């Protein structure tokens, strides 16, 4: 009777360990992506701060691949603001995903704890 219980617990622990490792990797990836998005956001913010005081008649170029395209100051400014907004949205999504992953691991751990407690009670 003890052997099937041990096998069941062993299997549950193996599943939990696999889930924890997978989740930790996903959380690290999300952290890396958040850091990268924060850098992009800061770069766009600093560039916007430098572009804003320039006169409207200033010629501005946008880098596209290996060439540059003449753009108006308003277009450049709008693109920079859009880049910041997009980065903010993606950061929020990643934070929510990270929270969900951490919560799912905690729930799995709690389930195994409950299983252990019920085994000890029998």
UniProtKB/TrEMBL annotation:
One of its GO terms (molecular function) is unfolded protein binding. InterPro entries: PFD_beta-like, Prefoldin. The keyword Transmembrane does not apply. The keyword Chaperone applies. GO terms for cellular component: cytoplasm; prefoldin complex. Belongs to the prefoldin subunit beta family. Heterohexamer of two PFD-alpha type and four PFD-beta type subunits. Binds specifically to cytosolic chaperonin (c-CPN) and transfers target proteins to it. Binds to nascent polypeptide chain and promotes folding in an environment in which there are many competing pathways for nonnative proteins. This is Prefoldin subunit 1. It comes from Alosa alosa (allis shad).
């Amino acid at each position: 009777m003890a052997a099937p219980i041990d096998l069941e617990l062993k299997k549950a622990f193996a599943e939990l360990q696999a889930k924890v490792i997978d989740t930790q990797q996903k959380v690290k990836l999300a952290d890396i992506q958040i850091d990268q998005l924060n850098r992009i956001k800061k770069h766009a913010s600093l560039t916007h701060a430098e572009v804003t005081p320039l006169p409207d008649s200033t010629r501005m170029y946008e880098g596209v691949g290996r060439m540059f395209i003449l753009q108006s100051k308003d277009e450049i400014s709008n693109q920079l603001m859009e880049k910041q907004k997009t980065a903010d949205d993606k950061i929020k999504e990643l934070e929510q995903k990270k929270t969900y992953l951490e919560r799912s691991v905690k729930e799995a751990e709690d389930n195994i704890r409950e299983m252990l407690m019920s085994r000890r009670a029998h």
